[in-house]
Design brief:
The strands form 5 sheets. A 6-stranded mixed sheet has the order 1-10-9-6-2-3. It folds into 2 domains: 2-254, Rossmann fold (3-Layer(aba) Sandwich); 258-417, 2-enoyl-CoA Hydratase, Chain A, domain 1 (Alpha-Beta Complex), CATH 3.90.226.30. Helices cover 35% and strands 24% of the residues. The radius of gyration is 21 Å and the shape is globular. It contains 18 helices and 18 strands. The protein is an alpha/beta fold and 424 residues long.
Length: 424
């Protein structure tokens, strides 16, 4: 059921309209004794989920007893990040999701279903796991808050991914990421329905339908003045509001370039992107737009590590970013990758499949480290002097007679050329 829907690729929703829409929807839901909010973490700072969570807290007051950021495998939020993203919400309401231990298993998607949706490539079962707080907390309302935007693992982010991955466990996260990688990122990106989403939908329909979840989903774009804004807001308890948000997101966040791009420069905000685990959105979101033998230059002043999780960081350093075939072979022959399939999937996603060159310009990682994971290295200061993110505009630019396509925030969109984006 949809409780509220509004969206347009032309206009935008003001903060006053946002507050009114949330209040009227919450009033429709009636009195609630105990409320849990599940927003994204700081890596989705631009989703407006922080403001929505703050407005929900102002409405429900003491009945909103817990806030569980959907960390997935990300690092816990710092006190400074919580204050920056969630404003005046009391920090004692925030809980940390432990993706290895704090789990409840709702059920298991059978291996026969995984084999079917993966076209016979995989046949393991998939555990539908969530943070045990969702089960043991005795909540009569769970607000799942976040942004619908193109995503490398599941086509379009949010909806039940916020629950089963954001508050999920190691096995479920690993296996869902690997399913997406094996099926093929180019076949998934920008598509709301795909094998990974089908598995999560199976879990929602069979095991998660007793959870009192209302999804609050934004679509974020920019105004004519280049300011971030909410283009769409959708609230409901089932897949319909997600599909409506996904439809708008493809109109707002997806750019079909008129020709394959020879050189792409992506800037990673240092307050948000400190690892290639997150920063490789620069690769995921652009590789369908880059021509063979082209180059992606990543300006990463905040980069200090590869994986946020120490074990994933170790595996990235050991195996490096390689082609799908090479990583699948390594996974078949190494138990440590078999036991951490999300790392294996990440290594596939972070590759150009030997089609184009990836050059990283890091702020806090050495040339030797960058080259050890199979990327090219360039000095950050020298490269920023040439490609200054403060003066470049999003889209086409000409630098010293060379055409350069600039992207100021890869998390906000998807770029492709029609030769690599075909409906399947």
């Amino acid at each position: 059921m949809i409780y509220f829907e509004k969206g347009s690729s032309e206009g935008f929703i003001t903060l006053e309209e946002l507050q009114h829409s949330l209040t009227s929807t919450f009033e429709k839901l009636g009195f609630k004794k105990k409320v849990l909010a599940i927003p994204p973490d700081y890596t989705r700072f631009h989703s407006f989920a922080g403001k929505i969570t703050e407005l929900a807290w102002e409405h429900f007051g003491k009945t909103l007893t817990d806030i569980l950021p959907a960390l997935g495998t990300h690092s816990p939020m710092t006190s400074e990040q919580i204050q920056s993203m969630f404003g005046h919400v009391p920090q004692n309401l925030f809980r940390i999701h432990n993706w290895r231990n704090d789990l409840a298993t709702l059920g298991e998607v059978p291996s026969s279903y995984i084999k079917e949706v993966s076209e016979g490539k995989l046949d393991y079962s998939w555990p539908a796991q969530v943070n045990k707080l969702l089960i043991e907390g005795d909540f009569d309302l769970i607000l799942s808050i976040g942004q619908v935007v193109p995503h490398e693992v599941i086509g379009m982010a949010n909806y039940n991914k916020n629950i089963f991955v954001g508050t999920g466990g190691a096995e479920g996260i690993n296996k869902s990421h690997f399913l997406g990688a094996v099926y093929g990122m180019e076949r998934i990106m920008g598509r709301p329905l795909n094998p990974v989403r089908n598995v999560l939908n199976y879990a929602s329909d069979h095991f998660g339908n007793k959870l009192p979840i209302i999804y609050i989903q934004t679509v974020v774009g920019k105004t004519e003045e280049n300011e971030l804004c909410i283009k769409g807001l959708y609230m409901g308890d089932d897949e319909e509001c997600f599909l409506k948000a996904a439809d708008l997101s493809l109109r707002v966040n997806f750019t079909m370039v008129d020709k394959p791009l020879k050189k792409v420069v992506v800037y990673l905000d240092p307050s948000e992107f400190k690892s290639t685990w997150l920063g490789n959105k620069s690769i995921y979101r652009t590789r369908m737009a880059i021509e063979d033998d082209g180059e992606l230059i990543v300006l990463a002043p905040g980069l200090k590590e590869f994986g946020e999780d120490p074990e994933i960081d170790r595996l990235i350093r050991k195996y490096g970013y390689q082609t799908t075939e090479e990583i699948l072979d390594a996974t078949n022959n190494n138990a440590e990758l078999q036991n951490n399939l999300s790392a294996a999937a990440h290594l596939i996603h972070g590759s150009s499949e030997d089609r184009f060159k990836i050059t990283y310009c890091p702020g806090n990682i050495t040339k030797e480290e960058i080259e050890s994971v199979n990327y090219q290295y360039a000095d950050l200061k020298t490269t920023i002097n040439l490609y200054n993110p403060e003066t470049l505009r999003d889209g086409y630019n000409t630098i010293n007679g060379e055409e350069v396509f600039f992207i100021s925030n890869p998390a906000l969109g998807l770029w492709a050329h029609k030769s690599r984006f075909e409906n399947k």
